[in-house]
Amino acid sequence: MKHLKFDILIVALNRIEFDARLTNFIHTFISNNFSVSVVALDSSFENVSVYFYGIEIPNEYSTYKKTIIFNSKARSFFKKIQPRIVLCSDVYSLPAGAYFKKRFGSKIVFDSREIYSALASLYSKNFKQWLLKKFESYHARYVDDIIVTGELDKDILSKLFPSKRIFVVKNFPSKEATEAKINFNLRDSLNISDGTTLMVYQGMLLQGRGIEIGIQSLKEDERIHFIILGSGDYENQFRELVHKLQVDSRVHFLGNIPYRKLLQYTSACDVGLCLIEPISLSYKLALPNKLFEYCHSGIPVVATELPAIVEVFNEFNIGELVSSKIKPFELAEKVISLAERKSEFSRQLELASQAFCWERQEQTILEIFG
Question: How far from the centroid of its chain's Cα atoms is residue 338's Cα?
Fold first, then answer.
């Protein structure tokens, strides 16, 4: 059987449309004339430059079940292709890497977006965390290079996988996404009156990401509306809290926004939330993409005083750092204060957006995949 040959195969247990990092990797590969094939949880992805195979799996399935089904369904596609390099975009894609390493000797690159051996979502589920750690360790023997999102993650994984080359590629927005921003009147679309402050959170709706305290802060100041962009396992619990606190009219769950449209929503807000509770090692070392997306959107940030985030604030004055133990009334005060002083941060936010740009990392990416 003749196989279709590609420079790069991307395997991701995720939907590309809402995944900034995947979108940016694909753009870099195509712009540098790599032939690209992609297998992902998507049926609507369209790009004439990509040979794409979408797998649909019900969202309510557990990650374990999704992993089994995904890798099983992908096999029929895998039998048709021969990639030079496989980018495993998460730990759950590593079985695909092992398959191509054994069959063709393909180079395997593992994009370790988190410290999977210490996930926040599993911090109270010891057996599941142990199982995932074993899963990662077993499949990592087929990996050639590892990519991480920050220097602190590199330090940790260098100890876990001392024989692997490890590169840092941070979750910076692309110039393309920033330039695609258009003026968008979010207040009009949501029927929110002028004179209010729009506080925004974007990302997965999970425990330990400051969403709960963001909701609670609305009880402290009626001028604040909370814009929530994203979805996740804790959405129903957050909606219940909103209803319990009777702030339904000031919390706006807008769901997942396609990456190419995301910044127009964010830039229509006043203050961004980047509150991470250090409930796991993965969260303690976090350097979330939302931090950089707020910079590119030109809005100041309230962020938790964690090591990687502090480094960014030491370089640029883009808002205010707060304790992970911040109280709702303190958050409300910070948000109103930052909104009132928004113009003071404009220059620093602009400089930060120029420094924290995906394209500035392309030489590192080409070193890995060249």
Answer: 24
The phi-psi region of residue 165 (left if phi > 0; otherwise alpha if psi is between -120 and 50; otherwise beta) is beta
Q: Does position 125 have pLDDT exceeding 80, yes or no?
A: no
How many angstroms separate the CA atoms of 23 and 17, rounded? Answer: 7
Whether the CB-CB separation of 66 and 57 falls below 8 Å is answered with yes
31 pLDDT above the threshold of 90: yes
The phi, psi pair for 214, rounded to 5°, reads -60, -45
Q: How far apart are the first and last CA of the chain?
A: 27
Name the DSSP class of 90. S
Note the pLDDT of residue 122: 66
How sure is the predictor about 120, in pLDDT bands with cuts at 50, 70 and 90? low
Q: DSSP characters for 149-212? A: SSHHHHHHHHHHSTTSEEEE---PPPHHHHHT-----HHHHHTPPTT-EEEEEES---TTSSHH
Report whether 78 contacts 106 (CB < 8 A).
no
Please enumerate in sequence order all residues whose Cβ is within 8 A of that of 332, keeping only pairs 6 or more positions apart, or say none. Answer: 217, 218, 220, 221, 224
Could you report the per-residue pLDDT of 153-187, keeping only the tens digit for each?
999 999 999 999 999 999 999 987 777 677 788 99
